[in-house]
Structures are given as C-alpha cells and as structure tokens.
Batch of 2 targets.
Target 1
Amino acid sequence: MSRWRSQLYKSEGLKKGIDPSILDNAIVTAEITLGSNPNLPPILTLRHLAHLTGIDYGFLRHVISRANENPYRVFRIGKRPAYNGELRFRTIAIPDPRLMVVQRWINRQILQQLTVHDASVAYSSGDRLVDAAKIHCGCNWLIKLDVRNFFESINEIAVYNVFLQAGYQPLISFELTRLCTRLGGVSPLRSTKRWTRNLDAPAIITSYINGRMGHLPQGAPTSPMLANLAVKKFDRVVTAIAKRIGVTYTRYADDLTFSTKDRAFTGTQSRKLIGEVYAALGAFGLSPNITKAQVSPPGGRKVVLGLIVSGDTPKLKRDFKSNMRRHLHYLSDPLYGPASHAREREFTSIVGMRNHIQGLITFANQIEPDYGAACQLAFDKVIWPF
C-alpha cells in the first residue's frame, strides 16, 4: 500500500470538487493516526475502508450491524477429554471469504505494525516457536499455566481499546472492532450491556446498537494479534510479578511459562507465583485452566511448547521422533507403501498425508537441523503413486 501524503490527498480531492474544509478535516484525522504510528494507514470512514480493501461497503455495514446472517462458518473440534472423562470441544469460526479479505488486510496493515509486550512470543512477524522455547533452556524450575478460553475472553471493548489507542477515531475503531469480533452463544455475561452511549453525541447509528457483547473468534486471522495487544497490560503486570519472584516469563497465546535457573528457588515460591498470576488473570477478566497447571522441579521433565528444554538448546520429544520413524518406515516399505500407510493412519488422501509429513520434517529441521536433514533425505526417496 502506498504511503499517505496529505498534499496528494488534498489535490486529488479538489480535482473531484470536494469542499476544502472537508478535506482539511480529513487530513487532521489522518494525521492523528500517523502521529501515533507513522506505519499505520489512515482510515477516515467505513467507505474509505471498503475502498482500501476492495470489499463492498454494504457488506461491511451488514457485518458491523450484527444482522441476522452470521458471517462465520462455525464448527467444533474435539479436545482432549477432561480429567473426569467429560468430552470437550473447541469452537472454530471461519469468516466469510469477503470478511477474511478485510481481516487479513487489518492484520497485515494495522496489527502487524503495532508492538506487543516483550513477553509475548507468538504471532508477531518473525516470532518462531523454537526461539520461544529457547528462552527457558537449562532451567531448574519450570512452571506452566494456561488461560481458559483465551480468545473468547477478549471482548469487544478490549478490542476497541486496541484500535483507539493505535490512533484511530472512536467510530472507525468501533467499526474495526465489529469486523474482528463475533457474537457467541447467549449468556448472562455476554448479554450485559457494557457500551455506554453519549447522549450529547450529534448522531447515533441505530443499526449498530446491540445488547450482546462480541468476542474474538478462534479462526479469524486478526484474533491472535488482537489478543496479544489486548493483554499487553496484563503481560506488564505478570512480568513485574515474575521479576520480583525471580523467574522469567513468556506467553505463547494462552500458554504462560515461567522458569528459573536459580537452585535456591523453592516450591513455596512457585505456589506464591501461581497465586499472584491467577489473581492477575482474574483482575483482567481472564480465568486459569487449573487442570493444566504444571510445576516441574529440579530433576523433572522440562517441556515448553512441545520441545525439551532441559539442555542448552531445544530438542524434539522422543514421541515425535518415534512417530517420524514409523512414517518413514512404512512409506519406504515396498510391501506397504504410501497408499496403505494413508489408509492405516486414516488420512483423507495420500497428498494430504505427504503434505502433513513434509510439514513435520520442516518443523524438525528448525529444531534439530541434522535430524531434519536425515528425515528429508529418507522422505525424498519415497516412491509416490502419482
């Protein structure tokens, strides 16, 4: 996208016969955004956003108004059963293709230009899982906590504040918020009105009024970065707690990780840390998933984001390598081969299986390059039936 230039904007507007005072007001609005962050694109109105994204204005207005038609395809996928055997599910909401275009534009042009807290190690440009795990390598104590329903816990108002603090005007911040959130199931919490209306405002867009509170949808390209930005203050608070107690803190989405190499650290300190972090979660409207809390003392297994961090560098887990060994063995076996292996492992297609295994090898190459190269060599020798 080309850089905003107020002179060019005004000259083009005058050519089209637009009132100079309207153009001057628009330039003032744009410069407020640019003054906050010169890398952000000024967005003057919803119609301007429609022009920037190439998506129909009427569709955007329809989404923002929370009309009856749901612009998301919603489905559930199974999660690991609870400790009591209860089945659990994760709700995924995939946006309409037109909304997906807008959200990708917002993520690329706006959200990726904003700065998250240093403790946040996922979803910003350049973030790598291996680097996030490396921070905790060689630790003696490892404490892992989890946030329950992370994306769904970030409501419209938190998202609105992200756009407002980025330098956008209140109305366009509200409209961007509605384009990045969805209405979940009806609940007392979500049905409580928390937007306040300024009765002195010159005009109210009545179609924008809705009694229910939206939240970030898991499945939208904007949700990861918006969640990171919305909990920036929470990250500051938890970083201060961690520093005071003497541990290192990182957050990978809903996974909170704390570690220390201090051999004098104690179980009492770990319990104090957990209590204070849980209190901070509650203060920010978040809740812990206490069943997923893990404390690994000296001598215990140290795993961060699926990688072993007991040594100086992250390593792949044993079960990852065992799984890879089975894949390569059966793919290369002339009596078995790709077709039989795909059926046995219940892949929907041989191509899908091949892409999946190639992805595993690419991941392995990032963590243990020599091992990854050996796997790639064996994989390249597989005879595929196409």
Target 2
Amino acid sequence: MKKFFFFLSFCFSVFTFAQKVTLSKVAQTHKNTDKVFYKINADSTAKIYLGEVEVQGFSDDDAKVFGMIYKKAKEIGANAFAWKPLVQIDETVSTFYPMHYKLELYYAEPKDFPEEKNLVYFIASPYKKQTIAFDDKDVVLAPRTYTTLQLIPGEIYTVSTRKLLGSSIKLSAQDDQPVQYFQFSGFSVNANQGAGIHFKSGDIMKLEKSYAQFLTTIYQFFQK
C-alpha cells in the first residue's frame, strides 16, 4: 500500500512540475523597453530574428506558462513571436502539439505589427465545454478552442454565457476600433498585476492582447 501511494505521489509530482520553458536558441539581442509581446506572421511581417523558446510538458495554467515565456523573451529583447512547426522523423511538418512546441522570437517595429479592425476573438475556458449564445444562435465551445466575430457597421451583437447569473456583453463596430479579446470562464482567475492580466466582469473576461494572442496560438480555432 505504501508503494502504491508513493507511486501516486510520484506521478502527481511529475505531472505538476513537468512543465519546462527554456530559451533554446539565441541569435542576437535587441535593446528596447517594449512591454508588448505580439503574435506575427513570420512570412509577411518585417522583423529581426532573435532566437527561440521551447516548451516541454503540459500545464493547464496558461497564464503561468505565458509568464515564463514572456520573461525568457524579454531577456533578449523580443516583442513578437511566431509558432515554429516541428519537423518529424519522416520530414513532414507536425500540427501543434501542446506537450512540446517552439516559438520563434523576434523584434518588430510597432508600425509593422499587423492590425485587425472591428474583429473580436472569443476564447473558451481551458477546463470545460460551454454553451455560448451569439445573439439567437447557441454555440458549444470545447475547452481550449476559440472563435471570431467580424463586427459590421450598424449591427449590435449580444454575446451571453446563458447562465441564470451569467454575463452578457453588447458589441458594435466603431471607426478604427482595434481587435478585442474575451475569454469565457466559470472559475476565478489570476489577478496578478503582470503579463496575462485578466479584466474580469462576471464570467466573461477581457484579455490583454499579448496574452490573448498566445492563447490563440496554443488553442484550436473553431468555426461557429
């Protein structure tokens, strides 16, 4: 029996501490005071390559993982990132694998960051599926997925978590309105004043752009 509990304890400790984030490659550094860390298309955005960060092992504490990646990126002055597909033994390119992935790190001038106007990202909870109402249409979002909504001028959109005491928001297109990110959650969230901060209103949270773009990298897109 003691051996059994020791085995369970060992497995739990491995699961808990298996997450590893390393600065696996440094090509150069860039001096800047940028706080942002945005996702870019490496094929179309002007940028300077700085290095790579590698993530091994899985954790559902996305804010903590992002904080670790952010810290490594800022060590070399990166303000942008892009997912780097891994090449498999048979030389095919792999799809995203949450247990092991790499992000290429870059410096990009602020003017070169891609802009998205009147676009809204809705990011699911990492823990459970949820039914979300987009106006009169119910959509079931699986854990660790996201979807988008393009706002059209003159239209007003209502998004609700459909709970008795749940949250709802109304959205509309505005002139030059920047991209927005929201996450649905039925759980309490990290309120630390740092990278990945959540601004919570009920169980719909508005996310800071850098953290949200990290989530849309490691989560799967869902076409509603």
